[in-house]
Amino acid sequence: MEELAGRPKSLTEQEFHYCPGCTHGIVHRLVAEVIDELDIQEQTIGIAPVGCAVLAYDYFDLDMLEAAHGRPPAVATGIKRVHPDKVVFTYQGDGDYASIGTAESVHAASRGERITTVFINNAIYGMTGGQMAPTTLEGQKATTAPRGRDTKEAGFPLQMSEMLATLEGAVYVARVSVDTPQRIKQAKEAIKKAFKVQLKGLGYALVEVLSTCPTNWGLSPQQALDWLEDNMIPYYPLGELKSVGEVE
Amino acid sequence: MLVELIIAGFGGQGVMLMGQLLTYAGMKAGREVSWIPSYGPEMRGGTANCTVVLADEEIASPLPTEPNVIVVMNRPSLDKFAEKVKTGGKLFVNSSLVDKEVQRQDIEVIEVPANELALDLGIEKVANMVMLGAVVAKLGVVDLETVIDSLSEVLPAHRHNLLELNKKALQQGRELII
Amino acid sequence: MSDKILMKGNEAIAEAAIRAGCTHFFGYPITPQNELPAYMAEKLPEQGGVFLQAESEVAAINMVYGASAAGARVMTSSSSPGISLKAEGISYIAGAELPCVIVNMVRAGPGLGGIGPSQSDYFQATKGMAHGDFRLAVLAPDSVQEAVDLTRQAFDIADKYRNPVMILGDGVIGQMMEPVEFKEIDSPELPEKDWIVDGAEGRERNIIHSLRLKTEDLTEHNWKLARKYEQMQEDEVRYEEKLMDDAEVAIVAYGTTARVVKTAIKEARAEGIKVGLIRPISLFPFPKKVIKKAAQQVDCFLTVEMSTGQMVEDVRLAVNGERSVAFYGSPGGAVPSPAEILVKLKEVME
After folding, report:
1. Mean pLDDT calculated for residue range C264-291
2. Which of A61, A174, A233, B41 is the most buried (most CB within 10 A)?
3. C339 chain-B contacts, CB cut-off 8 A
4. DSSP-assigned letters across all residues of B38-52
C-alpha cells in the first residue's frame, strides 16, 4: 500500500512539547519536508534558538546546535564559513531574532551570509510566559504590557522582513502564515525557495512565519487562528517581499 | 653592554621606524633586543615615542625607567624627555627643529641638524635616518653597515624605491659624528 | 645570524596560531590588539582560511562557537571591555565543551578605563568569567617568544580538554617587538573530533548544546567539567622559578610585571638581598604546589601585579597562612618600575 502521509525523515520520533494550537509543530514539519524533498538531510546543520523552540534539536533529525539567545545568525556564520558546501539554517522566534539578536540578524543578512532563517513571529514571548515581544501589536496585552502595548511608551512593532528586505545581502525575503491549509502550502513553498537560494549560493534568505500562541494570547486554538488573520496579517502583510535571482 | 634608548618626535617623523631599524640591526648583530612603541590615541597627530633595549644578556624589563640614551626629534619631545636621561647618558637633539638649549651638565648633548642635512639630500623626510646614522655612529654598539643591510628587511616592499636615499641619509648622519 | 625574526607580540601570536592550524578568525577592533586581526586578515585568506570582522564582540565569539562546533581550529582576540562582551559566548562554549583560543590583551579598567597595560582581568580570566561553573585554561606569556610558544600549546590544550583557552597578555606583550623563532613542534596525540556538526553524512547525528534541563544530567555534566579542570591541575601547570635556591623572599609576578621584577631582583641581589621569582605561566591551573613548597623555605612573599590585588588571593590560598604575603600594585595602566618594587621589597623584609 502506498503511504500518502507519514513522518518526514528529517524529524525524529520525539513528540513535540508544544502547547495545543501552537503552530511551531506545523512549521517544524514543513522545514523537515523541505529538507527531505531537497534530499539534503545529511548535509544540513540546524540551529535552535532560545525560546519555545529551544528543544528543536530534539525534533529535527539533523546535526543540530543550540545557540545563546539571539545569536543563531552569528553561530550559523561560523559553521557556514567552515563548511560553505553544507546547508545551514536557523530557526528563531521573535524575541530571539528581532529583539536580543537584532544586530546578529541584520548583519548576517547584510553580509549576504549563505544561510536560511525561519523566523517565527507570534507577537509574544512564549517560553518565559507572555511578555511583550518586539512584534507585539499596538494595544495587544502582555504580562509586561498589562494595559496593552502603548506605542508612546513601548514604541512600535518591528517589521523585520520589511527592514531586512532593504539590505543588498538579503536576496530572498518572504512573509507567510500557517493559519489556513492554503497558507500552509504557500509557507512550505517559501521555505523551500529559501533553502534553494542557499543551495544556489545567492545570499541570505529569510522566511517570516506568522504563528499563533493560544496559551499566552489567552485564546482557544481556533480563536487564535482568527485573531492572527484579523490582527496580525493587516500589520504584517503576506507575500514575497524580495526575490533576487533564479533558484530553479 | 646595555643600551636603553627612547626615540621621540611627532607622528610622521618616522621615530617608530628609527627604533625598529636599530632593533632589527641589533638582532642581526646577535644582541638581545626589544622595541616598544607608545600606542593608542596619542599616535594620532601628537607625539610618538618608542623604547629600544640592546643588551648582551637576556633583557629583563623592556621598559627602562632611566634610559641612558634619548633621541628627541622635536621641541615637545625635548621638554618631555630631557630630564629623563640617566646621569652620564647621551641626549641627541634634532637642532633643526629644537632651538632650546639643554641646561643639564651631567649628560652629553649631541646636536644633529637632521632636517637640514636631509634637505641637502633633497628630501626632508629622511631626517630620521640622518639622526639614526649619527646615533649609531656615536654609540658604536651596532655597525652602520648592519643598519644599512637591515633597511630592505624593515622597510615595506612598496618603499624599496627609497632604499638608496635612506642609505645616503644614514651615511650623512654618520659623517657628522666622525 | 639566527633564524629569529623581529615581530610584534600581536602579530607573532597570529602567525603562531596560523602555524598551529588555526583556519578561522573572528574579531572586532579594540586597542591594544588591533595588529592581531589585521595580520589574520592579511594572511589567513592566502592559506585558504577565513578572517571575518564581526559586527560586535558578541557576534565574534558566537561565530567562534559555530566554527569550533564545525570542527575548525578557531581564534578570536580582544581587549578587556571586548572580553566582557564575549563572556556570554565563552560560557556557552565551555558548557558545550568546544575548543577555541581567546586572546585578551588586557587594558586597564573598569569600564572603558584606559589603554595602558594592565593585569586587572585576572579574576575575570581565572575565575570562570561568566555565569556557570566553568574555567578557562589561562596562559600568560612574559615575552613575545613565549607568546608564540604558548599559542601553539593553547590550541592543543583546547582540543585535548574540549575547553576554551585564553592567552592573557597586556598592551606591552601585544605591542612589543622581540626576536622570535617559530619552532617546528610535533602535535601531541589529540582525541578525534567525532562530535562536530557538518551534516550527519553516513553517521549518527551530533547535537551541540549547553541546555540540560534534567538536574541529574546537569549535575553529572558539571562534575565532568570539574574533573577536566582537576586534570588540568595535574597536567597543565606551567611556571618559571628564578634564583629561588637560596631565596629568603619570593616575589610572585606574571606577564610583563615579571619582566620588571627580574630587573628589580637583579638590583636587589647586587645589594645582597636574597630574593627569587616565582612566575606563574599558567594562571589557571595556578601553580599552587610550587608556591606551597616555597612557603617552607622563604620568610615571606611579595606579589606584584598591575592591579589592586587579584592574583595575590591565589598566592595567599596556596600559602595558606604559613607565611605573610605582601602586595604591590599598579592599577592605572602603568608598568611599575624596578625602583618602586625594590622599595616595597625592603619594606616587606623589615
Report:
1. 98
2. A174
3. 65
4. --SGGGTTSEEEEEE
Please check whether residue C115 is in contact with residue C31, taking contact to mean a CB–CB distance below 8 angstroms. Answer: yes
Q: Quick check: C1 pLDDT over 50?
A: no
Q: List, in order, residues 6 or more apart from C112 with CB less than 8 Å away.
A: C81
Count CB neighbours of A111 within 10 A: 20
Which residue range forms the structural domain that includes residue C114?
5-191+204-235
The nearest CA of chain A is from the CA of C187 a distance in Å of: 22
Least confident of A17-31, A164-178, B38-52: B38-52
**Percentage of the residues of chain A whose pLDDT score is greater than 90:** 96
Tell me: do C162 and C246 sit in the same domain.
no
Identify whether residues C217 and C136 lie together within a single domain: yes
Domains, chain B, with CATH or none: 2-177 (3.40.920.10)
Q: Are residues C209 and C338 in the same domain?
A: no
Please compute, for residue A106, the number of CA atoms within 13 A of its CA located in the half-sphere on the CB side.
14
Enter the DSSP assignment of A96. I
pLDDT at residue C187 in the model:
82
Neighbours of C, requiring at least 3 CB pairs below 8 Å, are A, B
A-chain residues near C211 (CB < 8 A): 54-55, 66
Rounded to a whole number of angstroms, the distance from the CA of A211 to the nearest CA of chain C is: 25
Find the CB nearest A62 among C66, C89, C200: C200
Tell me the chain A residues in contact with residue C92 when contact means C-beta distances shorter than 8 Å.
67-68
The verdict on C250 and C179 lying in the same domain is: no
**Is-above-0.90 flag for pTM?**
yes
Asked if the C-beta of A77 comes within 8 angstroms of chain C's C-beta atoms, the answer is: yes
Residue C16 within any structural domain of the chain: yes
Shared domain check, C291 and C151: no
**Residue B84 carries which DSSP code?**
G
What is the reported pLDDT for C2? 54
Asked whether residue C197 is domain-assigned, the answer is no
Answer whether residue C198 is part of any domain.
no
Nearest by CB to C178, from B33, B41, B63: name it.
Answer: B33
Does C181 contact B at CB distance below 8 Å?
no
User: Residue A157: pLDDT band by 50, 70, 90 thresholds?
Assistant: very high
- H-helix or E-strand containing A184? helix A181-199
Q: C154 in a domain, yes or no?
A: yes
Q: What band does C327 get if pLDDT is binned at 50, 70 and 90?
A: very high
Q: What residue type is A229 in one-letter code?
A: E
ipTM, 2 dp: 0.96
C150 plus C297 within the same structural domain: no
Residues C148 and C178 in one domain: yes
Count up the domains in chain C and report the number: 2
**Orientation angle between helical segments B144-154 and B15-28, nearest 10 degrees:** 110
Same domain, C74 and C218: yes
Domains in chain A, CATH or no CATH each = 24-243 (3.40.50.970)
> What's the 3-state SS for chain C?
CCCCEEEEHHHHHHHHHHHCCCCEEEECCCCCCCHHHHHHHHHCHHHCCEEEECCCHHHHHHHHHHHHHCCCCEEEEECHHHHHHHHHHHHHHHHCCCCEEEEEEEECCCCCCCCCECCCCHHHHHCCCCCCCCCCEEECCCCHHHHHHHHHHHHHHHHHHCCEEEEEEEHHHHHCEEEECCCCCCCCCCCCCCCCCCCCCCCCCCEECCCCCCHHHHHHHHHHHHHHHHHHHHHCCCEEEECCCCCCEEEECCHHHHHHHHHHHHHHHHCCCCEEEEEECEEECCCHHHHHHHCCCCCEEEEEECCCCCHHHHHHHHHCCCCEEEEEECCCCCCCCHHHHHHHHHHHHC
Residue C16 pLDDT exceeds 80: yes
Question: Which pLDDT band, with edges at 50, 70 and 90, does B40 fall under?
Answer: low
